[in-house]
Amino acid sequence: MMPPMVSFVAWNRLGLTARNLAALLDTEEDFELYIIDSNSMDNTWDFIQELKDERIKSKIKFDKNRGPIYASNYALARRKPEQFFIIMDSDVHIYTKNWITRFMEVFREFPEVGLLGVPKAAPYTGYLPPVLFNIKNGISYIRLKNASLTDPIDFVPGHLQCLKPELINLIGYWSEEGHYGDADISPRIVHYTPFTVGYATTIEIDQVQEITCEECTAHEWCKLDRKTETCFSIRDKFYRNPLFAMKYLWRHLQTFEEIKEGKRTAYCASIHDEESMKNHLYYKDWAEENFNFYE
Question: Residue 61: which CATH number?
Fold first, then answer.
């Protein structure tokens, strides 16, 4: 099987990026790593440029921060047709050395599964939306039961997700028009494709949101005056996801209404894929306004 593509998107928080990329690369698992820096302002790019590993296939820094969907779809547009696609947020620290193997065991045992995530970990609570436990031949996963649009947490969170190629053929990209990320992709799959989504149960992670400068392993790259600001305070100052969610929920809901009415399919196009925009309904003005919101 071809090694999966792993997309790792960094945006400030150099300390976490260094910590979690080290854990990702400290494994014998085979993958093709695409590292994206969404125009960090804290020397993250200087650190990324120095990374060396034969599994790193691409490093790029955007000239502007255009939000998480733009970055994720940039990598997804470069996936080979037969590749699994893994998206990993910079706040995910993986402890399980054979974590990709654990994902693939579930996909092999449960062919109906299209997307697998991992439950949120410390410091987040362990709450799950309504789910169903599935086990076969000693392999298990937790299936999302409803994927309700009206429940604000009824989806598989996107901090660490693996998507199978057959699913990607049906859904295309994360919606750049609705731009709701995790809350978009789970119901789109559950209600408008033959696949299920759920959680792998045997991959251990944490999602520590901040470390001290003393704990950081990236001192030689950090040029900040840490008496006045840190890589974490910079990120918090410009973090805009909650504001976006409040302002543009209506776009997310309208795209699903259009799927329900037959005006569009479950396939979402991307600005990074010209053919997809030609062949599927795509509101480019919405997408560009969404991207610009994050600048």
Answer: 3.90.550.10
